[in-house]
C-alpha cells in the first residue's frame, strides 16, 4: 500500500484516515508526508514506512514487530500500549512522540534526535539509544519503565527522570560535550545532577560513576561553582566511591594536587582541553588502576568482567 492509496481512503469523524484493526503485514508505505492516519490496533509486522515525515498519527495498541521507519521526522505520533520487537527508529527526529506503556523490546533508537517525548511505563528490554540526542528543554521521562539491558551509549542528555525504573544490566554513558557551548553552566550541571539522582538506589554504583565522569570533565574545564559543589556533596555523599581521589580533589579543599599530579603525569593541560583530549584522558584514567582503590573495579576496561549496572566507558 502506498501513500496515494492511503489518501484515497475514507476518513473518520476526527478527520483521520482509518486503517484501524487491519492486518497490514509486510506493507510498504511510501510517499512524501503521511499525516493524520490511525493504525489503532492494526497488525504492522514487517511494515516499512519510507517518507519524509509521519505526523499526527496514532499507533496505539498496534503490533509493530520489525517495523522500519525510514523517515526524517515523526511529529505528534502516539504509540501508547503498542507492542513489538526490533522496531527501527534509527536516525529519525522523534518530536512529541508518546511511547508510554508500550512494549518495544530490542528496538533501535540509534542516533535519534528525541524531543518532548515520553517513555513512561515502557518495557524497553535490550533497546539501544546509541549516540541518541535528547534535545528537549523539558524533562525526558522514563518513569517506572523497565530498562533491563537497555544501552544508552554516548547519549546527549541534560534533563531526564528515571524514577522507579528497573535498571538491571542498564548501560548509560553520557556525552557531556554540551557544556562546551552551554552559557548556563550552573543550570546544565545541576540538571545533570538531578537526573543522575533519579536513578534508583539499586543503581548506586552507576550513579557514582556518572558523578565521577561529570566531576572529571568539570575539573578539566576548570569550572568551579560553590553552589554546584554543595549540590554535588549533598546529592552524592551517600554513594559508594565518593571518596575516590578524583571526586575528593573536586569537592574537598586542599586536595587538588591529586588530580593535578595525575594530569601532569600524563602530560595533559586543563587549558584548551578539547573533546578528543578529554575522551583520551578518561580512557587513560580508566586503565590506570593505581589511583583507584583495588575494589573500585568499575574502571576496568574489560566490560565483560563487570556487573552490568557498573558498566561505563
TrEMBL record:
Lineage from the top down?
Bacteria, Pseudomonadati, Pseudomonadota, Gammaproteobacteria, Enterobacterales
Q: Do you know which Gene3D superfamilies this protein is assigned to?
A: E3 ubiquitin-protein ligase SopA (2.160.20.80), Putative secreted effector protein (1.25.40.300)
Q: Where is the E3 ubiquitin ligase SopA-like central domain positioned along the sequence?
A: 206-300
Q: Which InterPro entries match?
A: 5peptide_repeat, Pentapeptide-BTB/POZ_domain, SopA-like_central
Q: Which PANTHER family match?
A: BTB DOMAIN-CONTAINING PROTEIN, BTB_POZ DOMAIN-CONTAINING PROTEIN KCTD9
Q: Under what name is this protein listed?
A: YjbI protein
Give the species this sequence originates from. Answer: Escherichia coli ISC7
Amino acid at each position: 500500500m502506498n501513500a496515494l492509496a492511503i489518501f484515497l481512503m475514507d476518513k473518520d469523524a476526527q478527520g483521520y484516515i482509518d486503517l484501524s484493526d487491519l492486518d497490514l503485514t509486510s506493507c510498504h508505505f511510501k510517499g512524501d508526508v503521511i499525516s493524520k492516519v490511525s493504525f489503532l490496533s492494526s497488525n504492522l509486522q514487517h511494515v516499512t514506512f519510507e517518507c519524509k515525515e509521519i505526523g499526527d498519527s496514532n499507533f496505539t495498541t498496534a503490533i509493530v514487530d520489525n517495523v522500519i521507519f525510514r523517515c526524517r521526522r515523526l511529529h505528534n505520533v502516539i504509540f501508547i500500549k503498542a507492542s513489538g520487537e526490533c522496531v527501527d527508529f534509527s536516525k529519525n527526529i522523534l518530536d512529541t512522540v508518546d511511547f508510554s506503556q508500550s512494549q518495544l523490546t530490542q528496538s533501535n533508537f540509534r542516533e535519534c534526535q528525541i524531543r518532548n517525548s515520553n517513555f513512561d511505563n515502557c518495557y524497553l528490554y535490550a533497546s539501544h539509544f546509541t549516540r541518541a540526542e535528547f534535545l528537549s528543554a523539558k524533562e525526558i521521562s522514563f518513569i517506572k519503565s523497565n530498562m533491563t539491558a537497555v544501552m544508552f551509549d554516548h547519549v546527549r542528555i541534560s534533563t531526564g527522570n528515571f524514577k522507579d525504573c528497573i535498571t538491571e544490566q542498564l548501560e548509560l554513558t553520557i556525552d557531556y560535550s554540551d557544556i562546551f557551548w552551554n552559557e548556563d553552566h550552573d543550570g546544565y550541571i545541576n540538571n545533570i545532577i538531578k537526573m543522575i539522582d533519579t536513578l534508583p538506589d539499586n543503581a548506586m554504583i552507576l550513579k557514582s560513576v556518572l558523578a565521577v565522569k561529570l566531576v572529571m570533565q568539570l575539573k578539566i574545564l576548570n569550572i568551579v561553582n560553590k553552589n554546584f559543589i554543595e549540590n554535588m556533596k549533598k546529592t552524592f555523599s551517600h554513594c559508594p566511591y565518593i571518596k575516590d581521589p578524583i571526586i575528593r580533589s573536586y569537592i574537598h579543599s586542599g586536595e587538588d594536587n591529586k588530580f593535578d599530579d595525575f594530569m601532569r603525569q600524563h602530560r595533559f593541560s586543563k587549558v584548551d582541553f578539547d573533546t578528543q583530549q578529554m575522551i583520551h584522558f578518561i580512557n587513560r584514567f580508566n586503565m590506570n588502576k593505581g589511583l583507584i582503590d583495588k575494589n573500585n573495579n568499575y574502571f576496568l576496561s574489560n566490560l565483560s568482567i563487570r556487573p552490568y549496572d557498573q558498566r561505563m566507558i
